[in-house]
Amino acid sequence: MSASSRGTTPGSSAAPDPLDVLGALPGVSDSVDSVRQAVDRVYGHRVMRRRSQEVSSEAALRGARGSAALADADWPLEEVRRRSDFGAEPEARTVGAALRLTAEAGQLLDVWRQSPVQALARLHLVAAGGIAADETVGRPRLAGESVTGEPADLEQLLALPLPDAAEVAARLDGLAGLLRSGSAAPALVVAAVVHGELLALRPFGSGNGAVARAAERIVLIGSGLDPKGICPAEAGHAELGRAGYLEALEAYMSGTPDGVAFWIGHCAKAVNLGARESTAVCEALQRGAA
């Protein structure tokens, strides 16, 4: 398997690669293999030869709908598809933010490679679009600032210890350094760690769940695993449910090898379900039903 399909481009440093080590955790190799096979099946579908843009667009829509559902705005897909006004009420704003984030993710690949923290700040600005200007928007929390206004997807998480601003800054800097230097870890592992770290840290005053899921999307696309963004993990996370999402996240936050492996496996299931969604789209396009 090539470096681009496994993860980020390996750096030249001989220092240990902490992300690659996670690939050896129990069950992770099987999760990586299952995702690779699922993604390959979608990309190998005959519809992808001529109508990949349509599949990508539909996957983006379904991914945004899934992310919004995890944030307690569980709209039917057709409602998300037909609506044009997303500023009227809280649920509509949540759906609108998810749509904007999904679109923005594909535009931030170069920024992400150079400065992941800058890309995250941009994602937070996009997520907060339409909300009154606030000095906390677009930057990590400072000392004394709390996390407020999170939707139901993080209600349980808010009861867990919140890292202070100094720890957030240090861990974000460490994560960004790992991403910039490159890792031989499989893309699934890198994406899961980015997603889990952002939820554990809750670096912003609000919108952390939506930003974390968009960051996972960026890694999956930018790594070369899913370059067209046709396997929306967000849709899979929504299908697995908020309870399962939070259970897996708590396992990750435990810091134990089994807990981290459990979270990576959960993310693998989400990508597999996203791939299944797009396979169904391909089948519908082939039948002329979509």
UniProtKB/TrEMBL annotation:
Residues 1-12 have a biased composition (Polar residues). PROSITE patterns: FIDO. Residues 115-266 form the Fido domain. Residues 1-22 are annotated as: Disordered. This is Fic family protein. It comes from Streptantibioticus silvisoli.
